[in-house]
Amino acid sequence: MKKLIFLALISVLAGCASTDNTGSSSNDAEYAMPEELPSAENAPSKTVAKPITPSAVIAATSKTVEESESELDSALKSQQDERIRKAATDALLKNPKDIKAMNALAMSYYRASQFTAALFLLNKAQNINERSTVVLNNMGVVYLAQGETRAAIKAFKKVLEIDSSHALAAANLGQIYVARRAYDKAVTAYEIATSRGIRDWKTMNNYAIALTGTANFAKANDVYRDLMKSKGSEREVLFNYSILLIDHMSKYDEGLELIRKLQFIGPPGESRRKVAELEQKAKTATGK
Fold first, then answer.
1. What is the pLDDT at residue 109?
2. Which of 45, 112, 54 is nearest to 75 (CA)?
3. What per-residue confidence (pLDDT) applies to 68?
4. Residues with Cβ < 8 Å from 90, sequence gap 6 or more?
5. Residue with more model confidence, 82 or 35
6. Please, are residues 38 and 141 in contact by the beta-carbon 8 Å criterion?
7. Tell me, what's the pLDDT at 270?
8. pLDDT tens, residue by residue, 194-249
9. Residue pair 52/120 in contact by the 8 Å Cβ criterion
10. For residues 67 and 80, what is the distance between their CA atoms, to the nearest angstrom?
11. Does residue 179 surpass a pLDDT of 80?
């Protein structure tokens, strides 16, 4: 049995795959996963935040709670971290137990890679409301960024204990489980996420990998067919779909067509050897 090798793993998971015994399913393929970060709530921007000046903090104290809340909502919509920090700080000066403001400020620290500060605020928010799914999901995201995968899994699972249909937590767990080849668990997680509307191409690509890993080839094929309609030029989709077609479904002509397209575009990561193996296998089977 060949060892599974994942290419282009989720960046925050790199180097952490051996720290948790989640179980795995056997498979003879290597897969390519698009690089992606887990999904946080109320964290729309990747702009590096700037600290608030003392004068800005003083000015904020003159506003009412209602004005602060409205300004925070506006700041979150703007996706500008400087505005978010200013508005969140203003809100917390008026109400030190404002969980929404704590979460917003914490995620601005997360985007600035200030993970200790982010976790401090999220833990403080959880102490106020230990069942806040927004806070718990974001704690999981920050833990992943720190490489603390066990803690992240625990946080995401806690979210699903509170709300079994929480799409973001389920999608985040799915990312972890696919990276760890725990395909049964990944399928369960992605079925929650996709049924609740998370159907971006990266999620669907990873879902199809999990389906392939559990030998649910027909359903994986359906997912890839849908992906090909809009993402037929994505390297990861072409590569993973060709694995399904050639290695698992013996659809050599279809697979060979994808391989040729992939060779023209350029295969993902370090997958050239696998692409050559797939091409040879398909050509041998078809006599081409």
1. 95
2. 45
3. 60
4. 57, 60, 61, 63, 68, 71, 72
5. 82
6. yes
7. 82
8. 999 999 999 999 999 999 999 999 999 999 999 999 999 999 999 999 999 999 99
9. no
10. 18
11. yes
Report whether pLDDT(132) > 60: yes
Is pLDDT above 60 for 91? yes
What pLDDT, on the 0 to 100 scale, is given for residue 60? 36
Return the pLDDT at 230: 95
Beta bridge partner(s), residue 32: 7
